[in-house]
Amino acid sequence: MNRALCSRAYLLCFSKSKSLPFEWMDRAIKLQLSTSEMNYFPDEVIEHIFDFIASHRDRNSISLVSKSWHKIERYSRHQVFIGNCYAISPERLIRRFPCLRSLTLKGKPHFADFNLVPHEWGGFLHPWIDALSKARVGLEELRLKRMVVSDESLELLSRSFVSFKSLVLVSCDGFTTNGLASIAANCRNLRELDLQENEIDDHRGQWLNCFPDSCTTLVSLNFACLEGEINLSALERLVARSPNLKSLKVNRAVPLDALTRLMSCAPQLVDLGVGCYENEPEAESFDSLMAAIKKCTLLRSLSGFSEVAPVCLTAFYPICENLTSLNLSYAAEIQGNHLIEFVQFCKRLQLLWILDSIGDKGLEVVASSCKELQELRVFPSDPHDEEDNNTAVTEVGLVAISAGCPKLHSILYFCKQMTNAALITVAKNCPNFIRFRLCILEPTKPDHITSQSLDEGFGAIVQFCKGLRRLSVSGLLTDKVFLYIGMYAEQLEMLSIAFAGDTDKGMLYVLNGCKKLRKLEIRDSPFGNAALLADVGKYETMRSLWMSSCEVTLGGCKRLARNAPWLNVEIINENENGRMERNEEDEREKVDKLYLYRTVVGTRKDAPPCVTIL
Amino acid sequence: MISELEMGKAESELELGLGLSLGGGTAAKIGKPGGGGAWGERGRLLTAKDFPSVGSKRAADSASHAGASPPRSSQVVGWPPIGSHRMNSLAAKSAREEEEAGKKKVKDDEPKDVNKKVQVGFIKVNMDGVAIGRKVDLNAHSSYENLAQTLEDMFFRGNPGTIGLTGQFTKPLRLLDGSSEFVLTYEDKEGDWMLVGDVPWRMFITSVKRLRVMKTSEANGLAARHQESNERQRK
């Protein structure tokens, strides 16, 4: 495999590079390439070849080929992705990749998004910044997901890395706008500040003012998740002096006239997130906005609209034909008919995130208008089914989309009902699915026409969609669906299970069958110790396993931890004392939440009392 | 400060129903330990285990399917799987709609459907002197006492390792009776800051926007303001 990989890289390199001497190119093409022969080339050549290998997985592979390749790869690696911040320590990371420039870190497990993980569980950024700073790593980019970030960390970050360019924070928490102020004030070369769905304590301060007048390098600024007021004139001045600004996403505190001014001084915008226009605007304001929008001929992506009168969406008609990405999933104020009217003109749409208020009829319109659609997410506007709402989406909308959009490869769909027949049709219509996430709002709901389980429907999905990498199942499901998944889902990397299955066999089918499985998360399903312990070695090939409200016991977890010292087996126990009562430990006691992951650095030292690491 | 007598009969009856599994830590004694505690996770939504009549969590088991009713979406923690950021945005919209609807009704009416869940979601709580705020889920609380207890646990018995929380206070907070160093205040929909505890609980949760644990010394102006606005309303 390594040999084929390197040949490919080599040829790719030669096809793109004009800087290598002719005699080398000639030699490579004429000779049967082997790694030992490649080693006759100077290191710089090999490094140059490696430059073309961008994927983390491929780079990991080539570093295993030989010692000299390992060394060359280490020093030429600039981008590192760490899917679990506790799998490795910052010190070891830096020792291996001293020339690191771009780091991606993920902290809390996925189910933290749904309040299933205690707030104080972990995922702290500070040790990483501390270590990177001390080692004087030339960090330029930092991407974080579900990490706990503090103002101190942000301050240290802003002062430690002279070339720092890009900060992307997704679903993080623990910091305030003071931290943002440090970043603004001290990062001289900042290009990107992208805050997505974070919990930020907004001190309603003047953090935007902290960007010095000399800062003109901004390319992307997203503060849509901030809840407080901002200094509008500071924002306007910042945008006016940022000629490279391509992406701007503002928060609710930016009213319509301010938005108009912003767009007027940034007609080069490609990606726009709008704020709040609560009431219907005056005719004059509306006209000014529309005029400004017309000038934004490069605009391709639109989002926001969280408190918006529907008429304001119509201001964007002049550019809607150019849009490739549209996120109206927060636009709870805009009703289905307005959404449909707008979307039908967005003929170039590749990505659409929308609320189920668009209805099946709306999805049929999308199916007939948006032939370039690749990714669709339909979110529920009424998650707890409290309103008597007949306009939400059903299996009809899903089938329509699958029939009308040939390029569709990723879908997240919340609905109240589903049928096997629909899923089978969808599977046959869209064999190219990479991500398929279906969430039927009521747990364990069967096929609403036949009252049977949805095993056959999901079975068809995994059977026909041979490239499926991510799957979330829901509705009434028995062990059989897992038999199908284990049998057919050969490329599956991530599986989410809730309220499904009958016996340990279900989980075993998945663990035994899905060879590429990396992340498995299960809640409220009857899988126990037998499944957990059947193949301990499997977990070494996976990033992590989450099981909550299942049948695994403390005894089972202890046994697992004993047999797999390279795993961190965490028990999260949130009883009223926040502490596991050790004198009452009973091995037969069911574990509320289990989270295990492979690691090279052993037990972490920063776990809170509610977490016990076995 | 808080007066149980002020609460309407309907509300206290409703509270009794909710309070079954929510009063000071009794939740953990229902069902299995390690799973049922409603206060373990700060401000967590009610779990299926708080409603013993709902049935086992193994709703997928076809044998039990006929017997126990499966958990409904609104009774299960973390379900449906929607990010909290998004949930809060939806809750804010519901609250706004309720407010709109409420304005149209005659003000003196009791709320017609006391059983309708008010989706306030998680609201922010800040404390003077503490940099990082937290969030509480008002839906998971049934009274001022519950709320005060949760806040006390949150800010005063937090783990030393937790960023930003105080952890150094050892005496109880007693937020509601005006006897300690701190009082609990809230910002209502009109943007006014009020002392918590003056209005019936159900009215409070529909009008509260965020909470603040304020130093008593700073809160002196508040009582006066509240009285003034009361006087204005009476006129």
SSE topology:
The complex is a heterodimer of chains A (614) and B (235).
Chain A: H1 2-16, H2 22-30, H3 35-38, H4 43-50, H5 56-62, H6 67-76, E1 79-82, H7 90-96, E2 102-106, H8 126-134, E3 141-145, H9 151-160, E4 166-170, E5 173-176, H10 177-186, E6 192-196, E7 199-201, E8 220-222, H11 232-240, E9 247-249, H12 256-265, E10 271-277, H13 283-295, E11 301-308, H14 311-314, E12 325-327, H15 336-343, E13 351-355, H16 359-369, E14 375-379, H17 395-404, E15 410-415, H18 420-429, E16 435-440, H19 455-464, E17 470-472, H20 479-488, E18 494-498, H21 504-513, E19 519-523, H22 529-533, E20 544-548, H23 554-563, E21 567-572, E22 593-598, E23 611-613
Parallel strand pairs in A: 1-2, 2-3, 3-4, 4-6, 5-7, 6-8, 8-9, 9-10, 10-11, 11-12, 12-13, 13-14, 14-15, 15-16, 16-17, 17-18, 18-19, 19-20
Antiparallel strand pairs in A: 20-22, 21-22, 21-23
Chain B: H1 9-19, H2 62-65, H3 84-104, E1 122-127, E2 134-137, H4 144-156, E3 182-188, E4 193-195, H5 201-207, E5 208-215, H6 220-234
Parallel strand pairs in B: 1-5
Antiparallel strand pairs in B: 1-2, 3-4, 3-5
